[in-house]
Amino acid sequence: MHAAAQEAVTPGGSDALIARRIAAGDREALRQLMRRHNQALFRVARSILKDDAEAEDAVQEAYLLAYGALGDFRGEAKLSTWLTRITVNESIARARKRKRSAEVIQLGGDSPSGMAATAAHSDLHAPEQPEQDALRAETRRLLERNIAALPDAFRTVFVMRALEEMSVDETAAVLGIPVSTVRTRFFRARGMLREALARDIDFACEDVFSFAGARCDRIVAGVLSRLAVALPGA
Predict the structure, then answer these.
(1) Measuring CA to CA, which residue among 204, 198, 172 is closest to residue 186?
(2) What DSSP character marks residue 120?
(3) What is the CATH number of the domain that holds 149?
(4) pLDDT per residue over 94-117, tens digit each?
(5) Residue 232 three-state SS
(6) What is the pLDDT of residues 27-40, one digit of tens each?
(7) Are 20 and 67 in the same domain?
(8) Helix, strand, coil: what percent of the chain each, to 5?
């Protein structure tokens, strides 16, 4: 790897330094940054859009928006938080456009209108003592379905806190809601999932919405391709 790119993606490097190198046209640094954050951003986008293809598109668009603003990034917030916020905004905008004639997703709303949908999954039965791999795969599928069935506001908080292990403060900052609301929604989301699954929800969290290499490659290739067209001389 080029020395500049390696410095840009080194964990010890500052977010502001990484942003400056990418803004200066270091495409390898951008590539590495995307591979570092792709899964987290995809999970957040999918928690809002509930569709793999739309989530991929939202993440690509978020990267392009971020790329255009990286020159102004000063490191007041973590780069990961900044990228997540852009992804959340892009995903909400897409959800609103898609559902213009229906009810718009309101992340700020507290009414758990989707509880009935979650309860509908409460009679899902676990397999009868299968092999460990099969059990884990089935648990992951059940968990994915029940996370998708959570009310919109609860689902995104759960994905950020449980799957991506974002802090309460970081989640609150990204979603623009009080810390107390993050805590309440996360607690209630876990309760709803426990009722639906009747098992330890943490068992398969690391595999939920697994991020296949092909999807990661598509996002990276898509962003770099669009940049090549928009900035042919860069």
Answers:
(1) 172
(2) T
(3) 1.10.10.10
(4) 988 877 644 444 555 544 444 334
(5) coil
(6) 888 988 898 899 99
(7) yes
(8) 70, 0, 30
